[in-house]
Design a protein that fits this description.
The chain is an alpha+beta fold. It has nine helices and twelve strands. The strands form two sheets. The protein has an eight-stranded mixed sheet with strand order 4-3-2-6-5-1-11-12. It has a four-stranded antiparallel sheet with strand order 7-8-9-10. It starts with a strand and ends with a strand. The mean pLDDT is 95. The structure holds glycine.
Amino acid sequence: MPTLIVHGGAGADPADGRDELRAGVRAAVTAGWRVLGDGGRAVDAVEAAVRALEDHPRFNAGRGAVLTAAGTVELDASIMEGDRLRCGAVGAVRGIANAVTLARRVMDDGRHVLLVGDGALQFARAAGMPECDPTSLVTERQRLRWLDRERTAGAAGTVGAVALDRHGTMAAATSTGGIAGKLPGRVGDSALIGSGTYADSTLGGVSCTGDGEAIIRVVLARCALDYLKEADDATYAAQVAVDLLVDEGQGHGGLILLDWRGRTGYAHSTPLMPVGVMSPALPEPRVEF
Ligand code: GLY
Protein backbone atom coordinates (compact mmCIF):
# COMPACT_ATOMS: atom_id res chain seq x y z
CA MET A 1 0.00 0.00 0.00
CA PRO A 2 1.52 3.40 -0.94
CA THR A 3 2.49 5.33 2.17
CA LEU A 4 4.27 8.62 2.84
CA ILE A 5 5.80 9.90 6.08
CA VAL A 6 7.37 13.35 6.46
CA HIS A 7 9.20 15.13 9.29
CA GLY A 8 9.83 18.81 9.94
CA GLY A 9 12.88 18.40 12.18
CA ALA A 10 13.65 17.49 15.77
CA GLY A 11 14.19 20.41 18.07
CA ALA A 12 12.92 22.58 20.87
CA ASP A 13 9.23 23.28 21.30
CA PRO A 14 8.77 26.82 19.93
CA ALA A 15 6.84 29.10 22.23
CA ASP A 16 4.81 30.15 19.22
CA GLY A 17 4.42 28.98 15.65
CA ARG A 18 3.22 25.41 16.25
CA ASP A 19 0.29 25.99 13.89
CA GLU A 20 2.70 27.18 11.20
CA LEU A 21 4.80 24.02 11.59
CA ARG A 22 1.68 21.87 11.46
CA ALA A 23 0.44 23.59 8.29
CA GLY A 24 3.87 23.34 6.68
CA VAL A 25 4.15 19.60 7.32
CA ARG A 26 0.59 19.08 6.11
CA ALA A 27 1.39 20.97 2.87
CA ALA A 28 4.51 18.84 2.36
CA VAL A 29 2.53 15.61 2.81
CA THR A 30 -0.07 16.93 0.37
CA ALA A 31 2.65 17.74 -2.20
CA GLY A 32 4.18 14.27 -1.87
CA TRP A 33 0.82 12.52 -1.88
CA ARG A 34 -0.19 14.31 -5.07
CA VAL A 35 2.56 12.23 -6.70
CA LEU A 36 2.25 8.99 -4.74
CA GLY A 37 -1.55 8.83 -4.55
CA ASP A 38 -1.73 9.15 -8.35
CA GLY A 39 0.46 6.07 -8.77
CA GLY A 40 3.74 8.01 -9.05
CA ARG A 41 7.19 6.91 -7.95
CA ALA A 42 8.31 7.02 -4.33
CA VAL A 43 11.45 8.95 -5.28
CA ASP A 44 9.39 11.68 -6.96
CA ALA A 45 7.08 11.83 -3.93
CA VAL A 46 9.88 12.32 -1.39
CA GLU A 47 11.52 14.94 -3.60
CA ALA A 48 8.20 16.83 -3.88
CA ALA A 49 7.54 16.66 -0.13
CA VAL A 50 11.05 17.85 0.78
CA ARG A 51 10.95 20.65 -1.80
CA ALA A 52 7.76 21.94 -0.16
CA LEU A 53 9.55 22.11 3.19
CA GLU A 54 12.65 23.72 1.61
CA ASP A 55 10.41 26.43 0.15
CA HIS A 56 8.70 27.04 3.51
CA PRO A 57 10.60 29.72 5.48
CA ARG A 58 9.85 28.15 8.86
CA PHE A 59 11.96 25.01 8.37
CA ASN A 60 15.74 24.59 8.51
CA ALA A 61 16.23 23.75 4.84
CA GLY A 62 16.33 25.82 1.65
CA ARG A 63 14.91 29.27 2.39
CA GLY A 64 14.82 29.57 6.18
CA ALA A 65 17.95 27.49 6.79
CA VAL A 66 20.17 28.32 9.75
CA LEU A 67 23.30 30.40 9.12
CA THR A 68 26.95 29.44 9.37
CA ALA A 69 29.37 31.23 11.68
CA ALA A 70 30.07 33.51 8.70
CA GLY A 71 26.38 34.39 8.32
CA THR A 72 25.95 32.40 5.10
CA VAL A 73 23.60 29.56 4.10
CA GLU A 74 25.23 26.22 3.19
CA LEU A 75 22.88 23.35 2.42
CA ASP A 76 23.18 19.56 2.67
CA ALA A 77 20.75 17.05 1.14
CA SER A 78 20.52 13.43 0.07
CA ILE A 79 18.06 11.13 -1.67
CA MET A 80 17.96 7.36 -2.14
CA GLU A 81 15.82 4.89 -4.07
CA GLY A 82 15.78 1.45 -2.53
CA ASP A 83 15.46 -0.99 -5.43
CA ARG A 84 19.03 -0.82 -6.64
CA LEU A 85 20.39 1.38 -3.83
CA ARG A 86 20.66 4.35 -6.19
CA CYS A 87 21.54 7.51 -4.29
CA GLY A 88 22.80 11.06 -4.60
CA ALA A 89 23.85 13.77 -2.18
CA VAL A 90 25.25 17.29 -1.94
CA GLY A 91 27.05 19.09 0.89
CA ALA A 92 27.86 22.71 1.75
CA VAL A 93 26.08 24.03 -1.35
CA ARG A 94 25.40 27.75 -1.78
CA GLY A 95 22.98 29.53 -4.08
CA ILE A 96 20.68 26.59 -4.77
CA ALA A 97 17.21 26.84 -3.19
CA ASN A 98 16.25 23.16 -3.54
CA ALA A 99 19.26 21.09 -2.53
CA VAL A 100 17.18 17.90 -2.61
CA THR A 101 16.64 18.36 -6.35
CA LEU A 102 20.37 18.82 -6.86
CA ALA A 103 20.92 15.59 -4.89
CA ARG A 104 18.37 13.93 -7.19
CA ARG A 105 20.32 15.15 -10.23
CA VAL A 106 23.50 13.64 -8.76
CA MET A 107 21.64 10.35 -8.27
CA ASP A 108 20.19 10.34 -11.78
CA ASP A 109 23.56 11.28 -13.30
CA GLY A 110 24.97 8.18 -11.63
CA ARG A 111 28.70 8.92 -11.76
CA HIS A 112 29.07 9.94 -8.13
CA VAL A 113 27.15 9.75 -4.86
CA LEU A 114 28.27 12.95 -3.11
CA LEU A 115 29.33 16.34 -4.47
CA VAL A 116 30.23 19.27 -2.22
CA GLY A 117 30.78 23.03 -2.30
CA ASP A 118 31.93 24.61 -5.56
CA GLY A 119 32.00 21.24 -7.32
CA ALA A 120 28.33 20.71 -6.51
CA LEU A 121 27.54 24.22 -7.78
CA GLN A 122 29.43 23.59 -11.04
CA PHE A 123 27.45 20.37 -11.44
CA ALA A 124 24.18 22.25 -10.83
CA ARG A 125 25.11 24.80 -13.51
CA ALA A 126 25.99 22.08 -16.00
CA ALA A 127 22.68 20.36 -15.22
CA GLY A 128 20.81 23.61 -15.91
CA MET A 129 19.48 23.97 -12.39
CA PRO A 130 18.24 27.42 -11.37
CA GLU A 131 20.60 29.37 -9.12
CA CYS A 132 19.48 31.98 -6.62
CA ASP A 133 21.10 34.89 -4.84
CA PRO A 134 22.49 33.15 -1.70
CA THR A 135 21.18 36.01 0.45
CA SER A 136 17.62 35.30 -0.74
CA LEU A 137 17.71 32.11 1.38
CA VAL A 138 18.39 34.15 4.56
CA THR A 139 15.17 34.88 6.44
CA GLU A 140 14.79 37.66 8.99
CA ARG A 141 14.14 35.02 11.65
CA GLN A 142 17.48 33.30 11.00
CA ARG A 143 19.32 36.61 10.68
CA LEU A 144 18.11 37.63 14.14
CA ARG A 145 19.00 34.23 15.47
CA TRP A 146 22.51 34.58 14.03
CA LEU A 147 22.89 37.94 15.74
CA ASP A 148 21.97 36.14 18.99
CA ARG A 149 24.26 33.20 18.11
CA GLU A 150 25.96 32.88 21.48
CA ARG A 151 22.61 31.70 22.83
CA THR A 152 21.26 29.66 19.91
CA ALA A 153 24.32 28.02 18.29
CA GLY A 154 24.05 24.30 17.68
CA ALA A 155 20.28 23.99 17.61
CA ALA A 156 19.24 21.68 14.77
CA GLY A 157 16.11 20.99 12.75
CA THR A 158 16.05 19.30 9.38
CA VAL A 159 13.36 18.03 7.00
CA GLY A 160 12.83 14.67 5.39
CA ALA A 161 10.44 12.20 3.83
CA VAL A 162 10.16 8.46 3.23
CA ALA A 163 7.74 6.86 0.75
CA LEU A 164 6.70 3.45 -0.49
CA ASP A 165 5.00 3.34 -3.87
CA ARG A 166 2.53 0.86 -5.33
CA HIS A 167 5.35 -1.02 -7.07
CA GLY A 168 6.96 -1.70 -3.67
CA THR A 169 9.83 0.72 -4.23
CA MET A 170 11.07 2.60 -1.18
CA ALA A 171 12.67 6.07 -1.27
CA ALA A 172 13.95 8.50 1.33
CA ALA A 173 15.22 12.09 1.23
CA THR A 174 16.60 14.59 3.74
CA SER A 175 17.53 18.29 3.46
CA THR A 176 18.97 20.79 5.91
CA GLY A 177 20.89 23.96 6.60
CA GLY A 178 22.80 21.97 9.24
CA ILE A 179 23.48 23.32 12.69
CA ALA A 180 23.39 27.02 13.51
CA GLY A 181 26.81 28.63 13.72
CA LYS A 182 28.59 25.73 11.98
CA LEU A 183 31.97 26.40 10.43
CA PRO A 184 31.76 27.08 6.69
CA GLY A 185 32.49 23.82 4.89
CA ARG A 186 31.04 21.62 7.61
CA VAL A 187 29.02 18.73 6.16
CA GLY A 188 26.52 16.90 8.36
CA ASP A 189 24.63 13.63 8.35
CA SER A 190 21.95 14.85 5.93
CA ALA A 191 24.46 14.64 3.07
CA LEU A 192 25.67 11.19 4.10
CA ILE A 193 23.92 8.08 2.83
CA GLY A 194 23.65 5.64 5.72
CA SER A 195 23.79 8.35 8.38
CA GLY A 196 21.00 10.82 7.56
CA THR A 197 19.17 8.91 4.83
CA TYR A 198 18.77 5.30 3.72
CA ALA A 199 16.34 3.26 1.63
CA ASP A 200 16.30 -0.43 0.82
CA SER A 201 13.10 -1.70 -0.78
CA THR A 202 13.48 -5.12 0.87
CA LEU A 203 13.58 -3.53 4.33
CA GLY A 204 12.45 0.08 4.61
CA GLY A 205 13.52 3.71 4.50
CA VAL A 206 14.72 6.25 7.05
CA SER A 207 15.29 10.01 7.31
CA CYS A 208 17.07 11.42 10.36
CA THR A 209 17.20 14.81 12.08
CA GLY A 210 19.23 16.17 14.97
CA ASP A 211 22.88 16.51 16.00
CA GLY A 212 24.67 15.64 12.78
CA GLU A 213 28.01 14.72 14.31
CA ALA A 214 26.30 12.28 16.71
CA ILE A 215 24.17 10.81 13.89
CA ILE A 216 27.30 10.25 11.79
CA ARG A 217 29.09 8.54 14.70
CA VAL A 218 26.42 5.84 14.96
CA VAL A 219 25.48 5.67 11.21
CA LEU A 220 21.92 6.13 12.40
CA ALA A 221 19.72 5.57 9.32
CA ARG A 222 21.28 2.25 8.36
CA CYS A 223 21.35 1.16 12.02
CA ALA A 224 17.62 1.81 12.32
CA LEU A 225 17.02 -0.56 9.39
CA ASP A 226 19.21 -3.20 11.03
CA TYR A 227 17.02 -2.94 14.13
CA LEU A 228 13.95 -3.20 11.89
CA LYS A 229 15.35 -6.37 10.34
CA GLU A 230 15.81 -7.91 13.80
CA ALA A 231 12.52 -6.87 15.36
CA ASP A 232 10.14 -6.38 12.39
CA ASP A 233 8.51 -3.50 14.32
CA ALA A 234 8.89 0.02 12.88
CA THR A 235 8.08 1.91 16.09
CA TYR A 236 10.40 -0.25 18.18
CA ALA A 237 13.24 0.06 15.64
CA ALA A 238 12.87 3.85 15.56
CA GLN A 239 12.97 4.07 19.36
CA VAL A 240 15.98 1.76 19.76
CA ALA A 241 17.84 3.74 17.10
CA VAL A 242 17.16 7.03 18.91
CA ASP A 243 18.33 5.41 22.16
CA LEU A 244 21.55 4.51 20.34
CA LEU A 245 21.90 8.13 19.18
CA VAL A 246 21.59 9.36 22.76
CA ASP A 247 23.62 6.65 24.53
CA GLU A 248 26.42 5.94 22.05
CA GLY A 249 26.31 8.98 19.79
CA GLN A 250 26.05 11.41 22.72
CA GLY A 251 23.57 13.58 20.85
CA HIS A 252 19.88 14.26 20.36
CA GLY A 253 17.50 14.05 17.45
CA GLY A 254 14.93 11.83 15.84
CA LEU A 255 14.00 9.83 12.78
CA ILE A 256 11.09 8.63 10.69
CA LEU A 257 10.96 5.09 9.40
CA LEU A 258 8.76 3.23 6.92
CA ASP A 259 8.94 -0.53 6.48
CA TRP A 260 8.48 -2.52 3.28
CA ARG A 261 4.87 -3.29 4.24
CA GLY A 262 4.05 0.41 4.65
CA ARG A 263 4.09 0.49 8.45
CA THR A 264 5.38 3.77 9.89
CA GLY A 265 7.44 4.46 12.99
CA TYR A 266 9.14 7.48 14.44
CA ALA A 267 10.92 8.54 17.61
CA HIS A 268 12.80 11.56 18.95
CA SER A 269 14.74 12.55 22.03
CA THR A 270 14.00 16.26 21.59
CA PRO A 271 10.85 17.98 22.89
CA LEU A 272 9.38 18.33 19.40
CA MET A 273 9.41 16.63 15.99
CA PRO A 274 6.44 17.34 13.71
CA VAL A 275 5.50 14.26 11.64
CA GLY A 276 2.94 13.88 8.85
CA VAL A 277 1.61 10.64 7.38
CA MET A 278 -0.64 9.78 4.45
CA SER A 279 -1.88 6.47 3.04
CA PRO A 280 -5.06 5.25 1.32
CA ALA A 281 -6.30 4.17 4.77
CA LEU A 282 -6.43 7.81 5.92
CA PRO A 283 -9.10 10.32 4.82
CA GLU A 284 -6.55 13.16 4.96
CA PRO A 285 -2.93 13.77 6.03
CA ARG A 286 -2.39 13.06 9.72
CA VAL A 287 0.03 15.47 11.42
CA GLU A 288 1.36 14.61 14.87
CA PHE A 289 3.73 16.37 17.24
N1 GLY B 1 21.04 16.82 11.15
C1 GLY B 1 21.42 17.99 10.50
C2 GLY B 1 22.82 18.35 10.69
O1 GLY B 1 23.35 18.18 11.78
O2 GLY B 1 23.43 18.80 9.78
